[in-house]
Every structure is written in C-alpha cells, then in structure tokens.
Amino acid sequence: MSQDMPEKTADAEARLSGLRERIDGIDAKIAALISARAECALEVAEVKKATGGDALYYRPEREAQVLRRAMERNAGPLTDEEMARLFREIMSACLALEEPVKVAYLGPEGTFTQQAALKHFGHSAESRPLAAIDEVFREVEAGAVSYGVVPVENSTEGVINHTLDNFMHSNLHICGEVELRIHHHLMISDITRADAITRIYSHAQSLAQCRKWLDAHYPNVERVAVASNAEAAKRVKGEWNSAAIAGDMAAELYGLKVLAEKIEDRPDNSTRFLIIGPEQVPASGDDKTSLMVSMRNEPGALHDLLAPFQEHGIDLTRVETRPSQSGNWTYVFFIDFVGHRDSGNVAAALKEVGARAADLKVLGSYPRGVL
Asked: Which intervals hold domain ACT (predicted)?
C-alpha cells in the first residue's frame, strides 16, 4: 500500500466533513425560508377571510405563474421539472395551512389519474378516489370537493370519449391540465410463478398501449381487461398464475415485483388529464381554451367553424368530433387552442364562431401545463 494513502483518506474525510457542515448550514436556511413562506400563506388566508364571502384559496393561474418563475430561475444542476416539483410540494403544504384543497379523481388508488392529481395539487391536498368519471363530475358539481381530475386523451389511443360526453350536460369549467408520461410495467406478486403465467390483467387502454410487446413476449397468454390498472394489481395478489400491467404507484401500493419495465410500445406514450372545477380561471400569461361547438348540418359547416381561428391567428391544438345527444346524425366539435378567452383576438374569434354556430360553450380557459 502506498504511504500517501492514509493522507489521501484523511484529506477526503476532511473535505467531506466540510461539505456536510456546509449542507447543514444550507438546510437550516432552506427550513427558515420555508417557514417564512408558510407564515406569509397564513397572512394571505387572514386577508381573504377578512374580505368575507367565498374566498378562493387555490388560484390556478397564480400557481402556474410561480412554477414558471421557479423554472426560469433554475440554474441547475436539478432539471426544471424537478425544481417545479419541489416548489409544487412547498405550495401544496402552505396552501393546506390556509384551506386544504379537496380533490376527487378517477380511482381506485394507484391509478395514473391519482398520479396526475398528486403532480398537479401536491401531496398535501385531500384526495378522494371515485369509481367513474361521472361520479367525479357529480362530486365537484355538488360541492363535496373543490376540484376533479379526469383523463381526456392518450397520445397512443386517442380521446377518452366518456370525459368529453360529460361536458355536454355539465356546467363545470376546465381549470387546468396535466400531462403525464405513462410507463407501463409487467408485475407479479410474491406467490406468482413467473414461468407459468397464463393471464395478464390491465385496463383495456393499457393492454392496447402494450400490444406489440405482449405479442412478442406473451403471445399465448390471455389478456383480461379490468376497470383500472390498480384493480389489475389487486387481482394479482391472490393468483399464482397471473400478472398485471400497471404503473410505479400501483406496484408500490400493492407490494408487487416488477418483472419487466417500460413495456409500452411507444416511448413517448403520455396521457393528458383535465382539472375541473366550478369557477372560471383568470389569465396566467400562457393559457389554453377549450370549446364545445354544435354546428348546423349544412355544407361548409366545418369551414365556417374553423375559418375565424385562422383569420385571427389562433393556434388550434386539438379538434374532436362526438355525436350530439340531441339528435341523429348531428355532431359536436370539441376544440382546444392556445390563448385565453379574455384576450382580444380570442374574443373576436369566439364572437364570429358564436354567430355561425347553433350552440357554443366555452368549457374553460386555463394555464397550459407547466411540466
């Protein structure tokens, strides 16, 4: 052994000791600043209560602005997404001191929708799993919760029609959006015989998103569609010959072993979720708007619908068609575009579309997803 090894070890230990002391000092400053922010949050709550009426504690546009600034100020080495996630949790904890946000989501626990709810509202929100999209809408409409989280489209399988259909008879507004990268894993329980799997459970969309992988690795295994990936994970717990396709949260929640990671056919697989609530959201500076439009059944109707957006320089991000519930062979268009309903060019375009349409309903203007 070289004689200078003890000296190098001593130098490394001294350096580590100094770095640890520095980290302890930084941690103390961070804790003090978080406490100061929490005190400010409590003062905000007092001011809002003093004004009387129904004070809005959660402000989607304000939160979006804070997160954008956090990412703009980020100098690394943490990624913008990690920095925003940390700020989201700080804001969530501070908001809980004012008034905890109650959120309903399409359950059960362990679903991607729950993951989207936590990503948007943080872990200090009070979340409630519900069995169906209809129930999420009803709970928010009844005032039992402040907001709901529902899936609306997947990059591989397209729109969630049931969510769009609920907007046809609901007065709720879209208050925000969340985009979540979806990674599917094949998982088994502690009693599963990995070499004897004859059945794989998952949600129908998840099975579809992993079709090619399943064809290549388990071509002769029965694929059973269930209500959710969390339900799939539950079933596997009691069966020695079955596996489930689900996400990280389900594996952790139900104590399953991941047999194969990221088995989705498309690496860019993602799902978009909507935040629904009772109030309209003011402009945040980077917004989207969603519409529901019924057109008269006549030649050129689609052109008449889309022309005002082009004329006013508005970027359409999605156009979907659903059969109308008011009559045969009539259709409703769901349209997303960049901009807030209160901005000049958007207001002008909406006025022109409204004059040409049989019915126009603005589902909401809301901050674009910041992560």
From this structure: 290-367
